[in-house]
Design goal:
single chain; 183 residues; mainly beta; five-stranded antiparallel sheet; four-stranded antiparallel sheet; 2 helices; 13 strands; 10% helix; elongated
Length: 183
């Protein structure tokens, strides 16, 4: 009886050993296709908050908050547009706050609260041109650790499955292996 169990254990382990796995007809080898490839950044670089005093094109509009003479509008996954609304008839974008992984904002007093991937970030916006990060609570939103706006490309089609050792900050079109598909 011992030998029969040993025989089945050896057969089971042998079937799991990678060099001896066979390609079955329903497992087509990966092929090169035109698709989306992730653009990565190290987590500490991707989480840097940066204010630039120039207009940025709006790619994916999110919610809007008013504060004093300013309007703050989310650009989902990228950051926050700063709009001068001193004269509502001539509202104009005057800057952009890069907050990668950002999906939601809230404002209370002179503080803007935003998510940066899974972190909760507090920014002092009393003077948006002199922005400063007041605090960061790491992993305040654990559900966003691997589920943030850039985890998959916006377009349907093939894409390279992202790694988990870096964060995705965008996507580019390229010739890739067909390992993931978005319907």
């Amino acid at each position: 009886m011992k030998y029969v169990l040993l025989f089945f254990a050896v057969i089971f382990l042998y079937s799991c050993w990678e060099p001896f796995k066979k390609n079955y007809p329903n497992q087509a080898p990966l092929q090169k296709v035109w698709g989306s490839k992730p653009v990565y950044a190290a987590e500490n670089i991707a989480k840097q908050i940066i204010y630039t005093a120039q207009k940025q094109p709006l790619k994916k509009a999110g919610n809007i908050y008013a504060f004093g003479k300013f309007i703050f509008q989310i650009d989902v996954g990228r950051g926050i547009h700063v709009i001068d609304n001193a004269d509502p008839a001539k509202a104009d974008r005057i800057g952009f706050i890069t907050v990668n992984g950002c999906e939601q904002i809230s404002i209370r007093g002179a503080y803007l609260y935003a998510n940066s991937f899974a972190d909760l970030v507090t920014l002092d916006i009393a003077n948006p041109a002199n922005l400063r990060e007041v605090s960061r609570i790491p992993n305040a939103f654990p559900q966003f650790r691997f589920n943030y706006p850039f985890v998959q490309p916006e377009e349907k089609g093939y894409f390279t499955c992202p790694r988990t050792d870096s964060v995705v900050i965008g996507w580019v079109k390229d010739s890739i292996y067909s390992d993931c598909y978005k319907n």
